[in-house]
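Run log // design_07
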């Protein structure tokens, strides 16, 4: 049927901030939906609180509301915009839950808004655990034995039936939040309490364990004519018991027989029809008992899911785009496949390669966290790779993770625990953890059998055999040593070719052969062993692919029948006059002779390098395409807009290593490469690429090194006469101790070339700095560590600027709300500054221009300053795109990354019409969002190492309201009445008086520990006294658990104080009570509460703010 004409305006709800379990795959989905529906002529209204996304760019929708995603706020937008329909399936669990809430409160009916994409009954039947179980039983499909609990008593009753271990799954949550596996009654009580709190409907499914079973997912689409397609089958390498977001996954499924697949496929069709999803996509998860093949249904997501982005990138079938079109009336047979331009969307994809997704974790940021993988998701990102075989794809995935690993290196050798024996390996294999496959490899090196490893891990023997074959190949290569490089055997069965077909990187081969990476590359190319590129075409080469979406693989050359018999196909490699054996006829890259620019992406999301950098890469592609360049994107992150096949002219889904990137550059011959937009990942490749003769666009690699290398940076500041906190650099423990003793404690220590404040710390004594240096060398080996005086009580400033080498424009000066010492990515910040004097702002502006011009910055630059006692100190300079670029761009209404890309390609700022700072009338506040709830045992205190996974933006006409909006959007909404607990360190007591007086004036009752209470009473503030935890019961934690406290303000100093008050902060978090752990944030909160009380909450689109 044709598209609906009774709908004119559609509201799309986004997913909000990046959190564990709901990441930038929903930015990708939302962008696809916006573009698809705009193409169809619909008026699009978008609400999303995340400024870092492409989705919230003003060009993506007709009106974009960067506002908190809550039922009340979305209803205000509906009242203002009066859309005809609401599409809730593109924004993850957040959007789905909001849509359900609005439907059940009759708000949608009140304003005449229709739910499209998924109807309310279908959403509830899939998301409500009890209704879903009944639906499966109705169609004769098995589900694990289970029951539904809304309180502890019900849970204990169900436990008698299902027994231990028991799986707990809260309803209407994302990423398994609040769930887990209980092996005893104590764990069960803890998990059920947490799960009931996590579920918005206070419902938890208590389920019998299928831990150890095989897990599969099918991505399914259905239209209103009942056409159904299976887009992709996905197999979890890890068995049941590990959340699918934390599992290594493989597409297509590798260990299903055709009969088993058909049974699962038929079940999926019955499920999607029974649930009632008839205009969109769904993800359905199954478990299969490896002993007998018995299959049970685990769950279904009636929306675009986390796996939908993976399936879309794996097949080239854009699920979100097609789902959006189905939602407005189209059927699958009416939608043309973008890649083939010949087949309809009802034509099921077929792939002739193997895709591996490998999750990326951040346990190094949370050393107190339990790193065991369970049913609650803990990964912060993922990498995807494509190869002809599982082994090739798997090893490409390993080197895509950005963890400085290039294969299955021995964990035992790395950790120095070779002497611990086989017992340690067995333990690491039996308990799910992110490094398990490396320990499995160690197990095979220790002569463990496949059966023994299977019994410990329950990983399917097929995958274990594949890993063992890689380990066996390693052993063979080690025994041959570097003489392999000079062997003259036929290149068809040369050990180097076989190794490359197995996915080995040159760097890993160099280690195994005890030689250099350069030597391996030279020998390999001399033998004609180079990769070819294949297209992702959705149909296993049955139809021509019109979109250059490519991956590399190593294939044996084929032969042709010539006049004198069979001949090897020969060609010449780039940069070589010697004939080389090449499979050139099989390469599908087909480079053009257009003027090209390669853009290197940021790789997998992780803390410190997230979606903000993908935003910059996408903008670069858009801008340079508009300027006539052929844009080539290289990235390995399946969640992102940058890896959408229509973002750039050509997409290479490849690891961001020197070897893999250089292969592409040799093939494409670009005029230049952009390394400054993808964060530290491509930045580290700048110098090695330049050394290989690759032109780097924008700021030179030497200038980048002057800013990133701590020693050279110190010399730069001294040359320019700019102030830096007293400091020294060190490459050894003794040098660091000497510098710290000279400067005086506390000191701030910072490695070179790291992201997200990795391994930055405030150190208070010599023992601590010695311990620190051991870890810092791992974070940034062979680079100096900066030791500088910790500027206590300073105000930190972030500046984003753009330069063409002659003109510098300061785009945004942001004042941090948290004091210096809290990582800039974790601190809330305000644009424009809310408390800085004009003369300080002027001095910051001057120093920014001085640094940009001396460094020769061409493109973007970020500088961090600290202001203390009226003096400006330079903390660090990043001559690249920063994580604040999207926030600043949206706040000032200027697409900075687009302008920077054009500058890097040769244009001047004058030509682009951007030569002066933009003055704005509104206030924008960026706030960080943290994953603390996912990691029991982790403290919520902030420091110099970044811990946030995402961010939100609050925007209004005054600072207080903007801050309040940012807190609501971040899930930390401030109360308007009630009781506030205050306990602060001695240094903060003078400042806390202002906070307490403001809260008292606003009508709050104040509660404080003895020292804080006495201080406030002496100054006329009414306050109740409560015991600290060690002072006896009832104490403050009792009050928090009893819901007698509505807001917590807690600051500490020193390890002992931090330990004593940890239970206060952790209980506050688990009880969902808003909290602040710095006095500066508490001051901002008082202003936010006052603003919320003084005027009504109003919503306005970003387009309206930018026109003011």
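design_07 sequence
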């Amino acid at each position: 049927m044709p598209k609906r004409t009774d709908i004119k305006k559609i509201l799309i709800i986004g997913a909000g901030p990046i959190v564990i379990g709901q990441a930038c795959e929903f930015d990708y989905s939302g962008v696809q939906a916006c573009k698809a529906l705009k193409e169809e002529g619909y008026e699009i209204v978008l609400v999303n609180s995340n400024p870092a996304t492409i989705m919230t760019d003003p060009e993506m929708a007709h009106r974009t509301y960067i506002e908190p995603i809550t039922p009340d706020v979305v209803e205000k937008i509906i009242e203002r915009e009066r859309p005809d329909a609401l599409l809730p399936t593109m924004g993850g669990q957040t959007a789905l839950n909001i849509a359900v809430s609005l439907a059940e409160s009759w708000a949608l009916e009140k304003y005449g808004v229709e739910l499209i994409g998924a109807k309310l009954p279908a959403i509830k039947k899939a998301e409500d655990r009890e209704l879903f179980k009944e639906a499966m039983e109705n169609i004769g499909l098995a589900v694990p034995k289970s029951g539904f609990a809304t309180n502890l008593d019900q849970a204990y009753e169900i436990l008698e039936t299902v027994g231990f271990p028991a799986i707990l799954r809260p309803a209407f949550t994302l990423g398994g939040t609040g769930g887990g596996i209980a092996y005893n009654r104590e764990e069960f009580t803890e998990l059920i309490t947490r799960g009931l709190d996590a579920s918005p409907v206070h419902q938890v499914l208590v389920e019998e364990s299928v831990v150890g079973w095989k897990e599969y997912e099918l991505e399914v689409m259905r239209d209103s004519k009942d056409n159904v397609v299976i887009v992709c089958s996905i197999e979890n390498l890890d068995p049941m018991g590990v959340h699918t977001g934390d599992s290594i996954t493989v597409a297509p499924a590798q260990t299903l027989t055709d009969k088993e697949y058909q049974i699962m496929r038929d079940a999926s069709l019955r499920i999607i029809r029974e649930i009632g999803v008839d205009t969109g996509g769904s993800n359905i998860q199954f478990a299969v008992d490896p002993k007998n093949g018995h299959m049970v249904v685990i769950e279904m997501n009636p929306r675009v899911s986390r796996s939908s982005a993976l399936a879309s990138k794996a097949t080239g079938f854009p699920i979100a785009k097609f789902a959006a079109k189905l939602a407005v009336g189209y059927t699958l047979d009416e939608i043309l496949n973008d890649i083939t331009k010949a087949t309809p969307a009802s034509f099921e994809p077929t792939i002739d390669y193997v895709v591996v997704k490998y999750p990326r974790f951040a346990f190094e940021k949370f050393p107190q966290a339990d790193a065991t993988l369970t049913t609650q998701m803990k990964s912060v990102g993922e990498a995807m790779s494509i190869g002809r075989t599982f082994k090739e794809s798997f090893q490409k995935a390993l080197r895509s993770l950005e963890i400085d690993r290039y294969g299955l290196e021995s964990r035992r050798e790395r950790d120095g625990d070779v002497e611990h024996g086989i017992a340690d390996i067995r333990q690491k294999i039996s308990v799910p953890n992110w490094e398990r496959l490396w320990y499995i490899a160690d197990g095979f090196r220790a002569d463990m059998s496949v059966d023994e490893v299977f019994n410990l891990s329950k990983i399917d023997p097929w995958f274990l055999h594949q890993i063992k074959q890689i380990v066996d190949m390693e052993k063979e290569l080690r025994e041959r040593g570097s003489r392999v490089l000079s062997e003259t055997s036929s290149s068809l069965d040369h050990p180097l070719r076989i190794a490359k077909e197995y996915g080995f990187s040159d760097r890993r081969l160099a280690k195994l052969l005890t030689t250099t990476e350069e030597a391996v590359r030279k020998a390999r190319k001399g033998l004609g062993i180079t990769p070819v590129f294949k297209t992702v075409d959705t149909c296993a080469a049955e139809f021509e692919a019109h979109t250059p979406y490519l991956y590399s693989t190593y294939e044996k050359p084929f032969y042709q029948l010539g006049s004198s018999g069979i001949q090897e196909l020969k060609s010449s490699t780039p940069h070589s006059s010697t004939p080389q054996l090449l499979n050139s006829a099989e390469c599908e890259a087909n480079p053009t002779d257009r003027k090209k620019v390669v853009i290197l992406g940021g790789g997998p999301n992780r803390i410190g390098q997230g979606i903000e950098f993908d935003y910059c890469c996408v903008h670069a592609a858009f801008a340079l395409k508009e300027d006539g360049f052929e844009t080539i994107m290289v990235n390995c992150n399946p969640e992102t807009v940058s890896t959408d096949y229509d973002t750039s002219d050509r997409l290479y889904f490849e690891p961001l290593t020197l070897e893999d990137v250089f292969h592409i550059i040799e093939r494409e011959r670009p005029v230049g490469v952009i390394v400054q937009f993808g964060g530290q990942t491509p930045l580290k490749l700048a110098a090695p690429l330049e050394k290989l003769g690759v032109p780097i666009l924008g700021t030179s690699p030497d200038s980048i090194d002057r800013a990133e290398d701590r020693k050279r940076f110190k010399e730069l500041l001294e040359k320019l006469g700019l102030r830096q906190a007293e400091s020294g650099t060190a490459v050894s423990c003794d040098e660091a101790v000497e510098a710290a003793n000279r400067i005086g404690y506390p000191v701030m220590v910072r490695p070179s070339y790291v992201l997200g404040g990795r391994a930055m710390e405030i150190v208070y004594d010599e023992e601590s700095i010695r311990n620190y240096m051991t870890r810092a060398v791992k974070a940034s080996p062979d680079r100096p560590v900066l030791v500088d005086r910790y500027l206590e009580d300073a105000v930190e400033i972030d500046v984003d600027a753009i330069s063409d080498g002659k003109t510098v424009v300061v785009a945004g000066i942001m004042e941090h709300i948290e004091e210096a010492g809290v990582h800039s990515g974790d601190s809330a910040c305000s644009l424009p500054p809310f408390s800085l004097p004009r003369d300080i702002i002027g001095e910051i502006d001057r120093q920014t221009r001085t640094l940009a011009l001396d460094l020769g910055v061409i493109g973007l630059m970020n500088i961090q300053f600290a202001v203390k006692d009226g003096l400006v100190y330079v903390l660090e300079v990043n001559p690249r795109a920063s994580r604040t670029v999207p926030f600043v761009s949206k706040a000032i209404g200027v697409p900075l990354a687009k302008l920077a890309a054009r500058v890097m390609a040769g244009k001047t700022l004058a030509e682009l019409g951007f030569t002066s700072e933009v003055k704005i009338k509104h206030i924008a506040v960026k706030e960080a969002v943290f994953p603390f709830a996912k990691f029991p045992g982790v403290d919520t205190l902030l420091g110099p190492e970044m811990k946030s996974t995402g961010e939100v933006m609050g925007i209004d006409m005054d600072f207080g309201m903007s801050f309040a909006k940012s807190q609501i959007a971040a899930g930390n909404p401030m109360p308007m009445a009630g009781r506030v607990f205050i306990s602060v360190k001695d240094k903060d007591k003078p400042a806390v008086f202002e906070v307490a007086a403001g809260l008292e004036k606003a009508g709050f009752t104040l509660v404080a520990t003895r020292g804080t209470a006495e201080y406030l009473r002496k100054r006329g503030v009414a306050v109740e006294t409560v015991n600290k935890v060690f002072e006896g019961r009832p104490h403050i934690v009792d009050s928090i658990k009893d819901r007698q406290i509505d807001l917590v303000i807690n600051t500490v100093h020193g390890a002992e104080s931090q330990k004593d008050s940890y239970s206060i902060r952790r209980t506050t978090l688990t009880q969902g009570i808003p909290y602040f752990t710095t006095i500066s944030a508490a001051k901002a909160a008082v202003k936010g509460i006052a603003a919320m009380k003084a005027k009504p909450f109003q919503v306005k689109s970003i387009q309206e703010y930018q026109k003011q």
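The two ends are 43 Å apart (CA to CA).
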